[in-house]
Specification:
The structure holds 2 protein chains of 2 kinds.
Chain A: E1 11-20, E2 23-33, E3 38-42, H1 49-56, E4 64-69, E5 72-73, H2 79-85, E6 87-90, H3 102-106, E7 113-116, E8 119-122, H4 124-137, H5 154-167, E9 172-176, H6 184-199, E10 203-208, H7 211-217, E11 220-225, E12 228-234, H8 240-248, H9 252-260
Parallel strand pairs in A: 3-10, 3-11, 6-9, 9-10
Antiparallel strand pairs in A: 1-2, 1-4, 4-5, 7-8, 11-12
Helix pairs in contact in A: 5-6
Chain B: H1 3-6, H2 20-25, H3 30-46, H4 55-80, H5 88-105, H6 110-135, H7 139-162, E1 166-168, H8 170-174, H9 181-184, E2 186-187, H10 189-197, E3 218-219, H11 220-238, H12 240-250, H13 252-257, H14 262-288, E4 290-292, H15 299-309, H16 321-340, H17 347-371
Antiparallel strand pairs in B: 1-4, 2-3
Classes of the chains: A alpha/beta, B mainly alpha.
The structure holds adenosine-5'-diphosphate (ADP) and magnesium ion.
Chain lengths: 264, 374
């Protein structure tokens, strides 16, 4: 189970701190992510999960701490830098633009160009063709590449976003709560997609506050609580109950769980 | 967990195939196209004999439509990028006044006056955009401020310098200026003379211009309008930058996260809107030979209305330059058509209000069709 850690980590986040004015969203969090692993980031709402991965994807600059990408220190000035380094992020909200077609969304920020004379134009034919092909691979049958993303279901949107990240050769794929708004079958599809992507040697950072989703695909688990990490656990070294307790920040949930008959 | 077994069956049988009609309905140009057909049918039926469809009449409403088109292209791209510019009308007055003051009052060569005015106005456009981006305030408020600031200067400057609010004499100093002729000249004059000689269009029957065609060429204003529409349409639909415009207006945060330089796109669109206002003003100053402090009043709203009739959403992220051009054409034809038909011109405003309301309601409905929201 533990073979992956013999590689070098693709990305190392060392003692990351992030303050928003007087709010300390992250108080020194360290996480290593290895190629081909699914690293689950767990934590309750407000724990700092989104903030943490936003420093990883160039949206936020960390207040303190270091990011090592492929062993070298990295400073991302904006998301473009992170994307061109190979870090693709599917954000919790706002991953796609509903009014735009699937094809325009798929290539947003990465538009394929074709030269006509000295001018460069958006290569719609290529974009449409690639989009249809990638969607078919993911098991989504579009009416056409010009179908608006707004007409897709939540799960389909997540899948488009993941397919897009993988298509553009992401080395690290960050998914911020991709399953939290989904139904059972859609969740299963997204988890299956994560599994597929991981097998292509992509490092997946999977954020969730659902322990069962995490245990379904995760190789390693890091729990964030109030901007701090309680360490990283390997698959098999930790029980679902322990994970749940760590997320809740202690023992108070145990009492609650008992009173509810163990259904949480 | 059995998630892998289900991954093959994502396709949703409950999504109905879209009918051809629905498909046509979600094209942003549809409203504009229907409007054009209706407007032409109306005037052909009720005002055919008014002279509106003679060569002079056609030139008349074409010119007015072209004016609307020039500012509508800028307003359209900016609205799709998610922002407004309410300072367009004031910018028209201001830039016309700058050209007149620099060339007539200060005696600069006209081309230099035009170049400096363009640079200044585009810089003001950039400032508009920069303030919107940096403060995060709605562009509505920021550009409303500039509506007053620029109009104020447009009245103040000629009054303190020349003690009047209209500066004339531009045509005399613009005589033979290479850049001025790019805004005030006409093209295809030889062709129109030939048409007149061949008896294909009307000619003057007496006076000093006897035998010359009534319409002696295509004003540069119309050339600018067509060029800007073509440029805007290709930029929006066929380039990478066009995709960024849609994305920035559709959802700025999502676009930024995907690596779209949203701030740059928006500021550039503010600059382009200012550029269009400047083109409008320069053509107008060259045509009238003067600049007036009240020029361009309410133009920002007319531009926005043309864009909305053209199918763009006020909330950004969706629209069409061709649609906006059709909206501008509807404007021009109706405004001048009512004039030709001898209808009281104030009724044009009534028409504007009604058609605006209809367009916005139609657009909201179309938006639901596209996004599937209820
Ligand atoms: N841009 C911001 N400005 C101020 N505070 C923020 C910002 N983003 C997040 N926070 C705060 O940081 C904390 C962590 O938020 P977040 O990372 O979104 O949590 P999670 O994703 O784990 O639910 C919260 O208390 C939140 O209010
Ligand atoms: Mg979050």
């Amino acid at each position: 189970m533990n073979t992956r850690t013999t590689h070098e980590p693709i990305i190392r986040m060392v003692n990351i701190e992030k303050h928003f004015g007087s709010v300390i969203a992250l108080a020194g969090v360290s996480v290593d992510v290895y190629p081909g692993e699914c690293h689950c980031l767990l934590g309750d709402n407000g724990a700092g999960k989104s903030t943490f991965i936003k420093t990883m994807s160039g949206v936020h600059k960390p207040t303190a701490g270091e990011i090592l990408f492929d062993g070298k220190p990295m400073h991302f000035d904006d998301p473009r830098d992170a994307i061109s380094a190979g870090i693709a992020t599917v954000h919790q909200h706002l991953a796609m633009i509903p009014l735009m077609s699937v094809s325009r969304n798929f290539f947003m920020g990465n538009e394929p160009l074709k030269k006509i004379g000295p001018l460069k134009f958006f290569d719609h034919d290529l974009a449409n063709q690639v989009t249809m092909e990638e969607m078919r691979k993911m098991g989504i049958n579009l009416r056409g590449p010009d179908q608006a993303v707004g007409t897709l279901s939540g799960g389909e949107r997540q899948t488009v976003a993941i397919a897009r990240a993988v298509h553009f050769g992401a080395k690290v794929l960050i998914l911020d709560e991709p399953t939290s708004a989904l139904g059972v079958r859609q969740t299963a599809n997204v988890l299956a997609t994560i599994d597929k992507v991981r097998k292509q040697d992509v490092a997946v950072v999977f954020i969730t506050h659902n322990v069962r989703h995490a245990l379904a695909v995760g190789d390693r688990f890091t729990v964030l609580n109030r901007g701090q990490t309680l360490g990283t656990a390997q698959r098999g070294q930790i029980t679902p109950e322990e994970l749940q307790d760590m997320m809740a920040g202690g023992q108070e949930l145990v009492a609650l769980e008992e009173s509810l008959g163990g259904t949480i | 967990m059995s998630q892998t077994a289900q991954s093959q069956t994502v396709s949703d049988e409950r999504v109905k195939e879209m009918s051809a009609l629905r498909r046509a309905l979600i094209r942003p140009e549809l409203g504009g196209l229907v409007g054009i057909v209706a407007v032409f049918a109306f005037f052909l039926l009720f005002a055919f004999d008014s002279g509106m469809f003679g060569s002079q009449g056609v030139m008349n409403w074409s010119t007015v439509s072209a004016q609307f088109m020039i500012i509508a292209v800028g307003a359209c791209l900016l609205m799709i990028a998610g922002e407004f510019d309410l300072s367009v009308g004031s910018m028209i007055g201001f830039s016309g006044m700058m050209i007149a003051i620099l060339s007539v009052t200060l005696g600069w060569p006209v081309w230099l006056a035009i170049v400096v005015t363009f640079v200044l106005c585009i810089a003001i456009g950039a400032l508009n955009g920069y303030i919107v981006i940096r403060t995060g305030l709605p562009s509505f408020i920021v550009t409303l401020a500039f509506l007053f600031i620029l109009r104020g200067f447009t009245i103040y400057l000629p009054q303190t310098i020349e003690r009047k609010t209209i500066i004339s004499g531009v045509r005399d100093v613009a005589e033979g200026d290479w850049l001025a002729s790019l805004f005030g000249g006409k093209i295809l004059t030889g062709f129109f003379t030939w048409l007149g000689n061949a008896g294909l269009i009307e000619t003057f029957e007496r006076g000093t211009r006897e035998g010359q065609p009534v319409v002696d060429g295509i004003p540069m204003l119309i050339v600018w309008a067509i060029a800007l529409v073509v440029f805007g349409h290709i930029l929006l639909t066929r380039t990478r930058f066009g995709n960024w415009i849609f994305a920035s207006g559709g959802d700025a945060e999502a676009a930024r996260n995907s690596g779209v330089p949203v701030s740059r796109v928006k500021i550039l669109m503010f600059m382009f809107t200012a550029f269009c206002a400047c083109v409008f003003a320069t053509c107008q100053v060259m045509e009238f030979g003067s600049a007036g402090a009240d020029r361009g009043l309410l133009k920002e709203f007319e531009a926005i209305i043309a864009v909305v009739i053209g199918g763009a959403l006020l909330t950004g992220g969706y629209g069409s330059v061709i649609g906006a051009a059709l909206g501008a054409l509807i404007f021009g034809v109706v405004q001048q058509g009512l004039f030709f038909a001898g209808v009281e011109s104030s009724l044009f405003r009534v028409f504007l209000g009604i058609i605006l309301l209809f367009a916005v309601i139609l657009n909201t409905y179309i938006r639901r069709l596209i996004t599937g929201e209820r």
